[in-house]
Amino acid sequence: MSSKKVLIDGHYGAVSLNIGAMISGRDDLEVIHLEDRTKFTDEQRLSLLNEADIVILCQSNKTVTETLPLISNTSTKVLDTSNAYRMSPQWAYGLPELSADNRRKIAQSRYVALPNPIATGAALLLTPLVKAKVMPPYHPLMINSVVGYTNGGSNMISLYESTTRSYGLSSARMYALDQTLMLQKELMHTCGLSYKPAISPFIDDYPSGALVTIPLHLRTLAKRLHSRQVWDYMARAYEHEPLIDVMNFDGTIDDLNGFLESNGMAGSNKMQIYVFGDNDICMLAARYDNLGKGGAGATIQCMNLMLGLDELTGVL
Q1: Cα–Cα distance measured from residue 186 to residue 25, given in angstroms and rounded to the nearest whole number
Q2: For the residues of 2-48, what is the DSSP string, one character each?
Q3: Which of 18, 99, 166, 168 has the most CB atoms around it within 10 Å of its CB?
Q4: Per-residue pLDDT reduced to its tens digit, 191-224
Q5: Residue 122 and residue 292: Cα distance in Å, rounded?
Q6: CB-neighbour burial class of residue 161 (10 A; exposed 0-12, middle 13-18, buried 19+)
Q7: Beta strands in the chain (DSSP E)
Q8: How buried is residue 254: exposed, middle or buried, by Cβ count under 10 Å (0-12/13-18/19+)?
Q9: Across-strand partners of 40?
Q10: Per-residue pLDDT tens for 112-164?
């Protein structure tokens, strides 16, 4: 069988940092990198865009919208890592574990949009409860996240790794202070929420790793549950997902020595889901790598599905 042609167009954001290394050496792929567009004429780039079996766009939103009309070959599939089309009905949402239907849609679609790295964890924590009608769509939500500085792409990496950086970069820094994140709309669209969640996001002084947490007052849910029963919903939802580990409810806090480090899954393409709590308050947590399951790993997973290859090739 001939190898599939993959064009990686651009070098913008966190996804492009690992994707080349993850697919290099695969004998089922022929990979071309367009990190520096000055090395190619416009005609050469146009030809490459339309010869590829799949184009992975690692570009800004603006550049993505300019590039898409150039791909006239209807056989060429497109995987976009920006937020330009995450809520478009013509695009599949690149999170296979969201549902069996969504996995099929990714495999059958010409266009797939990769989720926001933080949305990956939040959506997988919320969806089982919303689907089961345990959590009503109007439920007031507070979502907390902390992520490594690679999440901000090459510019932020340079900032954090500079020898003359400011003192404030040594601390956890909160952002999105005005609560007008595209991420909020993305989660409403993806999870079927009626109101935008409050989000408290932090970027911290370490390279990679993400931790998304959602506290729940159990008395406010549609069904009165103990935290262990919430864990049951998570365990059933992801029991057949090889990239998601729902960690044991009993003994987990002791195993962690009372702390859950946000960089504990750095270097992995898998996600750990934790459920903590009692009969009153439940804490949901998703821990993963923003460059793995939240970035390049998820890109490779979706690319495999789109090309009709084994979903986990190069990921596990």
Answers
A1: 35
A2: PPEEEEEE---SSHHHHHHHHHTT-TTEEEEEES-GGGS-HHHHHHH
A3: 18
A4: 999 999 999 999 999 999 999 999 999 999 999 9
A5: 16
A6: exposed
A7: 4-9, 29-34, 54-57, 77-80, 92-93, 111-113, 142-148, 173-174, 198-204, 210-217, 244-246, 271-277, 281-288
A8: exposed
A9: none
A10: 999 999 999 999 999 999 999 999 999 999 999 999 999 988 889 999 999 99
Cα first-last separation, the chain: 23
d(CA 63, CA 46): 14
Is the entire prediction scored with pTM above 0.90?
A: yes
Q: What is the pLDDT of residue 241?
A: 98
| Tokens, residue 155 | 């510019």
Q: What residue type is 166 in one-letter code?
A: S
Torsion of CA 79, 131, 293, 267, to 10 degrees: 180
Tell me, what's the pLDDT at 1?
Answer: 60
DSSP class of residue 70 equals: G
Question: Cα angle at 208 between 170 and 86, to 5 degrees?
Answer: 115
pLDDT tens, residue by residue, 233-260: 999 999 999 999 999 998 889 899 999 9
State the amino acid at position 233 in one-letter form.
Y
